[in-house]
């Protein structure tokens, strides 16, 4: 269970870090490359590690959009060589593209764990539940901004004390509605 909690926390770190690097790239050009590296693990599109590997295995099209977005960040910075950068509108568009694709990627990972929750037992089920208890609340801010009613459905499932009481189908439906394919 502790390994599952750590895995969830590391995936969240790999989600927020590229977004942070895009913002700091405004003043430090090299951080754009760091945004790419945090998502991809510094690997080619077809051989991802880290968060990109998880996303590619579950949703290849979502991985393609996230990878493209890391390139959009680099493209913005290559076009805007000023320090600090001047074209913040283009930066924000590239960052939003990356955020949107990675949010879908995180939702797909959570979706998979909800599916696995229904067909596991014992320690495996406890580990998936521990993972979900860490990662789902971290998606709540965006979920609530998109659709408060669906966010409530998702929150209600993860707040249950017993994984046997979880309606995984309701959680998966809410995730699909909240985080559609980019």
Overall geometry: elongated
Alpha-beta content class: mainly alpha
**Rg to the nearest angstrom?**
17 Å
**Largest sheet descriptor:** none
Helix content: over 70%
- Tally of helical segments: 8
Strand content: under 5%
Tell me the series of helices and strands, N- to C-terminal. HHHHHHHH
Q: In whole angstroms, how far apart are the ends?
A: 32 Å
Number of strands: 0
Rounded mean pLDDT is 96
Query: How many independent structural domains?
Result: 1
Low-confidence stretches: none
Overview of this structure, please?
The protein has 182 residues and is mostly helical. It has one domain. Helix content is 77%, strand content 0%. The protein contains 8 helices and no strands. It has helices at 2-24, 30-40, 50-58, 60-79, 88-117, 122-146, 148-158, 168-178. α1 runs antiparallel to α2, α2 (30-40) runs antiparallel to α4 (60-79) and α5 runs antiparallel to α6 (122-146). The longest helix has 30 residues, at 88-117. The protein is elongated and about 55 Å long. The two termini are 32 Å apart.
């Amino acid at each position: 269970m502790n390994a599952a909690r750590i895995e969830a926390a590391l995936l969240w770190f790999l989600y927020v870090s590229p977004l942070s690097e895009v913002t700091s790239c405004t003043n430090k050009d090299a951080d754009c490359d760091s945004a790419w590296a945090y998502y991809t693990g510094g690997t080619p599109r077809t051989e991802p590690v880290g968060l990109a590997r998880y996303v590619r295995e579950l949703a290849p099209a979502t991985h393609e959009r996230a990878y493209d977005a890391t390139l959009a960040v680099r493209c913005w910075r290559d076009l805007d060589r000023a320090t600090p950068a001047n074209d913040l509108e283009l930066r924000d568009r590239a960052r939003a593209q990356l955020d949107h694709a990675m949010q879908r990627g995180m939702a797909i990972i959570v979706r998979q764990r909800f599916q696995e929750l229904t067909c596991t037992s014992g320690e495996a089920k406890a580990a998936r539940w521990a993972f979900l208890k860490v990662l789902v609340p971290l998606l709540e801010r965006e979920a609530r901004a998109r659709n408060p009613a669906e966010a409530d459905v998702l929150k209600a499932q993860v707040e249950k004390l017993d994984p046997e009481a979880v309606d995984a189908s309701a959680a998966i439906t809410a995730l699909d509605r909240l985080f559609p394919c980019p």
